Amino acid sequence: MTDRVVTRFAPSPTGYLHIGGARTALFNWLYARRMGGKMLLRIEDTDRERSTEAAVSAIIEGLHWLGLDADEPPVSQFARAARHREVAEALVAAGKAYYCYASPAELDEMREKAKAEKRPPRYDGRWRDRDPSEAPAGVKPVIRIKAPLDGETVVQDRVQGEVRFPNKDLDDFILLRSDGTPTYMHAVVVDDHDMGVTHIIRGDDHLTNAGRQTLIYRAMDWDVPVFAHIPLIHGADGAKLSKRHGALGVEAYREMGYLPVGLKNYLVRLGWSHGDDEIISPEEMIAWFDIDDVNRGAARFDFAKLDAVNGHWIRASGDAELVDMLMSVREHLPNGAILRSEPDEVVRDRLLRAMPGLKERAKTLVELAESSAYLFAARPLAIEPKAEEILAGGGREVVSGLLPVLEQVADWNAASVEAAVRDYAEQQGLKLGKAAQPLRAALTGKTTSPGVFDVLDVLGRDETLARLREQAA
Length: 473
Ligand code: GLU
Prior knowledge:
Elements: E1 6-9, H1 19-34, E2 38-43, H2 53-66, E3 75-76, H3 81-93, E4 97-100, H4 104-116, E5 142-145, E6 152-157, E7 161-166, E8 174-176, H5 184-194, E9 199-203, H6 207-220, E10 226-230, E11 233-234, H7 250-255, H8 260-268, H9 282-288, E12 299-300, H10 303-316, H11 319-329, H12 344-358, H13 365-371, H14 373-376, H15 385-407, H16 414-428, H17 432-444, H18 452-471
Parallel strand pairs: 1-2, 2-3, 9-10, 11-12
Antiparallel strand pairs: 4-5, 5-8, 6-7
Helix pairs in contact: 1-9, 3-5, 5-6, 8-10, 11-12, 12-18, 15-16, 15-17, 15-18, 16-17, 16-18, 17-18
The structure holds glutamic acid.
């Protein structure tokens, strides 16, 4: 046995990789990186009705997009059914589990009785010590664990602390169903053991399973891994996370224009902190992350914070890198068509020139694409109503006055056009904004844009003058 840390992410492929799952994967991945270990991926696909190949692909693709690839090919839980059966039978052979032939009617009766006595439903152990020769003919048995009848099972959880489960509450639960398929409880333990998992980091909705799972490890005489049950993510209002709050698949976050680095930065802060640091780079996360620093309280998902963090990472990204990102993600963006309005080289070239101005204001790639629209707009330019108000309210006269001034600018760049516009405004007794606003409206069709002199510079002399002539009074 080595001491190397092995974590795992074990999603059920019944839906896409949702945001809570992405955070669980991130914590497992970070802890493995931090400790020089590895993270494995297990697809918990034993529910054949609800598991789909599309969901498996979406999970793997979502992890890849976030840069959280597993260190080995994924393990299918369903494919390991024979091994699950083997372990259950080994437990019977060792006297740690037994065949139970109780009929559905008997189990119903037990449940009803418990209900009447206001007790939680528990299997009463009727086959626990019975001789198998008494087995009714033609009935396929289940395998149940022989759980301790008294005492406690204690889980030392790295996040939740010491958690005690009275053994009488754990009862002789089923390991193998009568059709030979394993229960979730059993399959998880056998897989985690066989995969060499040393640390189980998962949502705290699984905390009660940890007690029962510990019994299986003990019965097999296997090392119990370290458990760390992390708090679930709630909505900004404290309620359980719903779609409205952001309980969406990671592909939805890609479509909303978040960067992997921004989303990871936001997610790592949900339930974990490093002092007051809000902006944490991927390298810092690896260097600082520890499960002991995960908080016990539920984390709250807040889109405004996510936007702020993502905006930071957009500004911090290189111009060429952002152009590449926009081009590669455009098929997923609702307004990605903006980036297809010219041949790719032209789009890339204009984006790159405009990027220093564009990236200052955008919080998402969708906003970045939106604000780049002026670069690709065909004449006659579509003018938004608010921009039209500015042009109609005296703006066209300003544009007409500026046109000959700008036509005189010989060496066209942001500084030279700014100087020309400033001169003109001063001569006319106009505030600079009163000159800049109509220019912006005429050149972009909008009332917000990157700095207007950058717009003139990026559009170039000919396109600028052509757009201004369209609006001149
Ligand atoms: N498949 C379980 C889930 O998606 C996780 C099981 C585990 O982590 O042990 O909730």
